[in-house]
Amino acid sequence: MQVEALYDHGQLTFNRPIRFATARFPVILEIPDQAVLAEPQPPAQPAAADAAVTDSPDLLAEIRHILGPLSKRRPSVNSAEDKTALTQALAEKHGL
Amino acid sequence: MKNLVFDINVILDLWLERQPEDQLRLIASLIDGQRSGLARGWIASPSLHVLEYLARAQFKREGADPEEAKDRVKRLLANLLQRLNPLSSFGFHQDAALLAQTDLEDAQIVAAAAELQGPTAIVTNDKRFDTTGTALVQFRPAEVSAWLKQLPAEQLPNEQPLAFVDIKTQQNAIRPALEQQIHRVLHHGQYILGPEVTELEQQLATFTGAQHCISVASGTEALLISLMALDIGPGDEVITTPFTFVATVEVIVLLGATPIFVDIEPDTANIDASLIEAKLSEHTKAILPVSLYGQPADMGAINAIAARHGHLPVIEDAAQSFGASYQGKRSGSLSTIGCTSFFPSKPLGCYGDGGAIFTSDDRLAQACREIRVHGQSARYVHSRIGVGGRMDTLQAAIVLAKLPRFEHEITQRQAVARQYHDLLAMEEQGITQKQKQDIVRALPCSSVAKPLPWPKPDRTSVFAQYTLRVQDRDRLQTKLKEQGIPTAVHYPVPLNEQPAYRHLCCPDCTPVAQQLAREVMSLPMHADLSAVDQQRIVTALKASGV
């Protein structure tokens, strides 16, 4: 049978009362796409305690791929310049 | 594993390519460090919006379309959060952060980083953080590698005492999930039998393969409620082992029944199934084996005996063995009822007391559910005598946060146990670490300390304890303690020799238990025990000269 239900913080409440013959059975749920943020990922696990720092070209390549045309070499800046940029960005956001 | 908390300027250097290529690769490798087992990486939550503003502002200044810049920066943040754990800045941090000499954002990062367990460094290109009063250190990216390679002993002139069970490292590994679970409970406020309790019971039932899981207030409560559900009371006898934590027997006596002690196997320290039938009588109402040290008892043999004698119920005390298996089935689901404990030091523990009952018998499950809530079958309808034995929602939430890492921890525990076995064999044979790969697993172990044999082929152990048989135990424990190595004895006196129970059994009728009680000693054991620390422990054992 099909029945409507409300999912709320881990609990499923049926929209009409039903008496079940057994206390535990499998069900198939249709969950609206917009209600799902992402498939849960298992936590990252340590591979080895004594690993050494190595190049990570994959992450760099991923970042450059995400940036696309915005990816380019830029001059280094100090933290004061970053702070100034932040102040300007926040001022713009809040219309100051 | 050490912690790296990344400052904004390091991330921006990477995203905006503001450093030479080799520096960018170095930063990327540090951020990827958690995947390679190098370090656990974090980004303080107050840094995230700053990163977003700064990156977007940069692209906007360069003439990028604002919407495109916004989209790409969001994807960068998502990419970052796949590698770094978000580090919470709590409300209670803010007053102190406001009083700090540095700016608020930096003070928030320091306060959040100081909550982490273990060695923690802030990775920054701008050495300005005020870490006064904390154990935090700060490094430029190029300096981090040397710090990560430092062994604990090099950092500390006197070797720090080891933990017998380390649940702080585990806490770092699951911190975001822990915080989410705890705050979820604080938000909905259903502290008793809340949705996390139901969710945990469903997940644990699936994990074990049992039809029902009933969470309860402790492992002791699990045993008590199980016996009550089986209507065990005065005049009844329950077959069990004398070599266990007192709770196993305490609950039998509390109900007015009599524990009948059966001796144990010398190689597993579990009840010797071949001796059970001789102890059965017309009063026997149940068999209660304990799966000690993490290895299931011989449940097949015990179940067969129970079946031959009027289908006696069998209750497996799986307080130490949850996660282990016997002939392909999970401990806890191997008999009529399985009971486990979520005491913090257990392989799967909460942050207080907790436990669970497993059964595939609908009637027993219903009885257990009613008994744990004062025998209540409906609101204020008390159909049977019960107890206040519920597991509270917060503790269920803690276990839920730990469950996704549990399989990994079981594997790690087994690897740690195997490493102990190999190291003890190497110490005995004078074999070096380089030759370890050639070691035959069955090499005899040290004469100083002889481990219990590896688990039998038809079962696995979760190694709740890694236990040795030693001579002159007190002296050995003292010597190890002097070197910062804690040990424990599970258990020093068989229960049939304890003052409260000795009248229930002749003191000398379980000679194997008597012998093991004099010899057993457990070494530090947890999923995050490092190879370096294990070597230190085994070297100290060998050097003890006991």
UniProtKB/TrEMBL annotation, chain A:
Domain of life of the source: Bacteria
The name this protein goes by in its record: Uncharacterized protein
TrEMBL record, chain B:
Domain PIN: 4-128
InterPro entries with a match to the protein in the record: DegT/StrS_aminotransferase, PIN-like_dom_sf, PIN_dom, PyrdxlP-dep_Trfase, PyrdxlP-dep_Trfase_major, PyrdxlP-dep_Trfase_small
Keywords assigned: Aminotransferase, Pyridoxal phosphate, Transferase
CDD domains: AHBA_syn (cd00616), PIN_VapC-like (cd09854)
Protein's UniProt keywords contain Glycosyltransferase: no
One Pfam family, short name: PIN_3
Superkingdom in the source lineage: Bacteria
GO MF term (any one): pyridoxal phosphate binding
GO biological process: polysaccharide biosynthetic process
Keyword Transmembrane helix part of the UniProt annotation: no
Similarity section: Belongs to the DegT/DnrJ/EryC1 family.
PANTHER family: TRANSAMINASE, UDP-2-ACETAMIDO-2-DEOXY-3-OXO-D-GLUCURONATE AMINOTRANSFERASE
Protein known as: Aminotransferase
Source organism of this protein record: Lamprobacter modestohalophilus
